[in-house]
Amino acid sequence: MIDPSLPEVVRIASELIRFDTSNFGAGNAKGEREAAEYVGAYLESLGLDVEYYEPIPRRTNLMARVPGRDRDKPALVVHGHLDVVPAMAEDWTVDPFAGLVKDGMLWGRGAVDMKNMNAMILTAVADILRSGDRPERDLVLAFFADEENGGVEGSALVVQNRPEWFEGATAAISEVGGYSITVDDRRAYLLQVGEKAMIWIRLVARGRAGHGSRLHDDNAVTKLAEAVAAIGRTRWPIHLTPTTEALLAGLGAMTGRGTDDPDALAGAAGPAEAFLRSSFRTTTNPTALAAGYKHNVIPERAEALIDVRVIPGTEDDVLAELQRIVGDEIVIETVVRDIGMETPFEGELVEAMVASIGRHDPGVPVIPYLLGAGTDNKALAYLGITGYGFAPLKLPADLDFTGMFHGVDERVPVESLVFGQRVLADLLRTY
Question: For residues 371 and 279, is the Cβ–Cβ distance under 8 A?
Answer without folding.
Answer: yes
